[in-house]
Amino acid sequence: MVTSILDIDLDYFNLVSDPVQELSEMLAWANRPVDILADKHADAMRRWVELVASGKLSSPSHILHADEHHDMMDQKSSINIANVMYHAMSRWPKCRVYWMTQDSIDTPAMWLDDNVWKRLRTRFRTGNKRPRKWPTPDFLSVTVSADFIRPDLKDTLMDEIMRREKKWHSCGRLHTVEEH
Questions:
Q1: Distance of CA 3 to the CA centre of its chain
Q2: Which residue in 116, 140, 130, 127 sits closest to 60, CA to CA?
Q3: In whole angstroms, what is the distance from residue 119 CA to residue 179 CA?
Q4: CB–CB of 154/10 below 8 Å?
Q5: What pLDDT does residue 1 have?
Q6: Domains in the chain: how many in total?
Q7: 123-127: which pairs have CB atoms within 8 A and are 24 or more residues apart?
Q8: Pairwise CA distance, residues 112 & 22, whole Å
Q9: Separation of alpha carbons 63 and 134, rounded Å
Q10: What is the pLDDT of residues 54-72, one digit of tens each?
Q11: 78-117 per-position pLDDT tens digit
Q12: Alpha-carbon gap, residue 89 to 99, rounded angstroms
C-alpha cells in the first residue's frame, strides 16, 4: 500500500527565487488541504506517529521532505528538530524519503553512524525538484519553523496557505487543520 506524505517546512523557501509561486505549485500538486500545521518539525512527526498508531493514517511509504535541512543529524531516541527524518525512516522501514532542497550543504552520511547510514541510504534521495513519478500525497503536513525563516517570508507563505485553505472550505470540503 502506498501512503505518501508531503512534508513542507517553510524554511525550504529561504533560498527559492519565487517562494509564493513554488509553494502554490506544491500545494496545487498535492491537491488537498493541510492536515497538520505545526510550529516545530518534531511536533509534526509526533502527530504522524499518533495518527499511524490510531489507524487514522497508514504507515507512510513515501515522504517528500521539502526542507532547508535533511533532519537526519542525530540518532537520539527522542524526536527533535535535528532527527525527524531519521525517526521516520527508522520507525517505518519501508518508507522512502526524498529530501527536496535548493542547496544541500551536507548529507546525512556526515552525521549518522556508518552502519545506520548504510541501512537507510538506499531509501533516501535528494534533489531540487519533485521526482516525476512521486505519488501524490495522502497527507499534507506544514511546519512553520519560525526560528529558521524571516518573519516577512513566513507571513507571506502563511497567507498563501490560508488563502488556499479558504478555497478548500468554500468548495464544501470539510476539513480542519490540526495545529500543534
A1: 14
A2: 140
A3: 33
A4: yes
A5: 81
A6: 1
A7: 123/89, 123/94, 123/95, 123/96, 123/97, 124/72, 124/85, 124/89, 124/96, 124/97, 124/98, 124/99, 125/96, 125/97, 125/98, 125/99, 126/70, 126/98, 126/99, 126/100, 126/101, 127/98, 127/99, 127/100
A8: 31
A9: 9
A10: 999 999 999 999 999 999 9
A11: 999 999 999 999 999 999 999 999 887 789 999 999 999 9
A12: 12
In the predicted model, is pLDDT for residue 174 greater than 70? no
Backbone angles phi, psi at 22, to 5 degrees: -60, -45
Judge contact between 38 and 180, C-beta under 8 A: yes
C-alpha distances out from residue 100 to 40, 50, 109, 178, Å: 18, 25, 17, 24
Q: What is the residue range of 85's domain?
A: 4-179
Q: Looking up cell 502554490, which residue turns up?
A: 24
Judged by DSSP in three states, 122 sits in: helix
**Each residue's pLDDT tens digit, 136-154:** 999 999 999 999 999 999 9
DSSP code of 51?
H
Q: In Å, what is the CA distance from 121 to each residue of 63, 101, 110, 126?
A: 14, 17, 12, 11
Instruction: Write out 130-168 in H/E/C secondary structure.
Output: CCCCCCCCCEEEEECCHHHCCHHHHHHHHHHHHHHHHHH
Q: What sign for the dihedral angle of Cα 29, 42, 68, 126?
A: negative
Rounded Cα distance, 160 and 96, in Å: 28
